[in-house]
Amino acid sequence: MIDLIKIRQDLHRIPELGFEEFKTTAYLSSILEGINEITIYYFDFPGVLAVYSRGNGSYKLFRADMDALPISEKTNCSFSSRHSGKMHACGHDVHMTILLGLIDKVVHKRIKENLLFLFQPAEEGMGGAERILKTGILDRFKISNAFALHVSGSLPVGTISTKPGIFFANTQEIEMKITGKSAHVAFPEHGRNALAAGAEFYLEIQKIVKSEFDRSDPVVCEFGKMRAGTVMNAIAAECTLEGTMRAFTLKNMKRIRKYIEELSLTLNKKYDVQFQQIYKSFYKQVTNESALYEKLKYIAANSGYDFVEADAVFTGEDFGYYAEKYTGLLFWLGANQGEKQNLHSPNFLPSEKSIEIGVDLLYKMI
User: What's the pTM?
Assistant: First the structure.
């Protein structure tokens, strides 16, 4: 059996951003290529698909994401990131380790099943799932179900949480570029203030979201980053806002976009500036199939794990593309080590005790 703790720590040391996971792919390959019972497929970008064919029916797909985040680690653990400014702050190192553990268990048990194990790059906002699907490699197999898990720093080790139906929201990244004209602040009439237009846009879109959407079907439209100007005593000629739109229905996603574009036109005229909307990565909602949800709930109860009914959340996950094409299930895997931790935090460090539980649950879902 492979040493899953060592593997997790090795992967944690070499975090890489989306579509840059070359060292990670090489590390995974060094383990997978030593397993005779699987066939390995590579892409023209980072990532690995391992195929185990010992059954007569359709395939079950298990996915783990590979990429890290542009965050400087502050965990002070003995296996901290060796890549400056990059960190596995979302637990993808644990996800990959669990998938390797699942492969190892399946091979040693020599079970009579057809299984696919996908190590997917670029989950964090760069469209890795879409790119995998566009290769057509999964179309070579008749796939019945798709599974994934995500560690949670809010739930203790031994706790599982999910829900049937819509689980994670539709998400759309957006960049707003506003172009005006610079002038000295002593002569503002000579300029066109992009910063003022950007500030009003931000405040107004928050009001619209609160007033136009029902609380029973909420949405998010938030801009977490804003850049403008070059010096303190000049009107800003440019302003950029970067943010995200999130909703549980495509109808509401279209409504948010409509309000953004209408507000942009209004402020174009008011400030005599130009607004440009750049819509980036879009992730479809994650919808869990009820029968798979019930199966996981039954397994958890009969394996000594605590099961907590989850709420739908505004988290984005490109597993939604697999769950749309195949019958799917995504669930939270408790991983906090005594106190709650936030995903995407420089201090996020899920417990290694969650690895064995993750392997056990996915194996039993087969």
Answer: 0.93
